């Protein structure tokens, strides 16, 4: 188990963070995805303006560098402000964009290798994340466990050292399902240290 105090973060320190995320820091891949999302939805001028508003003018996000969770929250919140979306919806939509972003990154193959169907993919999520750990040794990665499947629903337990990312996961899971040609209703209830997700299959009317 990774100790939070091992993790370096610019400015976050050991004190609790103001935002709902209580991790420490995150690799810039997430920020790059947020930047791409903002660029496609808002365009470059608004992206620059948004960085300026956040006191982050000229900030480059580098995939293998580490940025405080506070900064992540600030960026997502600023994007949401400009799109007229609350934090939950912004994270959900960002989650929706994440799979395409990760698929187009150097980790595209990792994503491809994780499984040929939804259930296999979901049960391989931890292995998939573990395989990137050698490149990103400080990552505090999430945990996913398929707790039940079959019938019309798959239930997945998500665990994290951070709080507030369940909507992000919701968006990712919905778009992962789409990758496998399934349209699912993805809902969750928050649990201690994470959330329990239900992916419900929509049945065509008989
Ligand atoms: C090739 C595909 C993927 C790559 C390369 C990747 C990589 C990463 C990286 C680098 C982080 C940041 C960890 C840190 O800096 O502490 C992260 C976090 C995260 N990833 Fe992935 N990921 C991938 C796919 C997925 C998928 C399919 C899911 C499905 C739900 C997922 C869920 C998450 C979540 C929820 C977090 C936030 C960490 C937390 O909850 O504490 N990722 N991932």
Describe this structure in words.
This protein has eight helices and six strands; from the N terminus they run βααβαααααββαββ. It has helices at 29-42, 44-53, 69-83, 87-104, 108-113, 118-123, 125-132, 166-179; strands at residues 25-27, 66-68, 143-148, 153-159, 184-191, 194-201. Helix 1 (29-42) runs parallel beside helix 3 (69-83) and helix 1 crosses helix 4 (87-104). Bound molecules: protoporphyrin IX containing FE (HEM).
H-E order: EHHEHHHHHEEHEE
- CATH topology description of the largest domain: H-NOX domain
CA(first)-CA(last) distance: 48 Å
Rg of Cα set: 17 Å
Query: Could you list the spans in which at least 5 consecutive residues all have pLDDT below 50?
Result: 1-22
Q: Estimate the strand proportion.
A: 15-25%
Looking at the overall shape, the CATH architecture of the largest domain is Alpha-Beta Complex
Q: Please identify the structural class as seen in this structure.
A: alpha+beta
Biggest β-sheet, characterized? Answer: 4 strands, antiparallel
Number of strands: 6
Ligand identities: protoporphyrin IX containing FE
CATH class type of the largest domain: Alpha Beta
SSE layout and pairings?
Blueprint: E1 25-27, H1 29-42, H2 44-53, E2 66-68, H3 69-83, H4 87-104, H5 108-113, H6 118-123, H7 125-132, E3 143-148, E4 153-159, H8 166-179, E5 184-191, E6 194-201
Antiparallel strand pairs: 1-2, 3-4, 4-6, 5-6
This protein binds protoporphyrin IX containing FE.
Residues 23, 26-27, 29-30, 102, 107, 110-111, 125, 129, 132, 136, 139-142, 160-162, 165, 168-169, 172-173, 176 line the site of protoporphyrin IX containing FE.
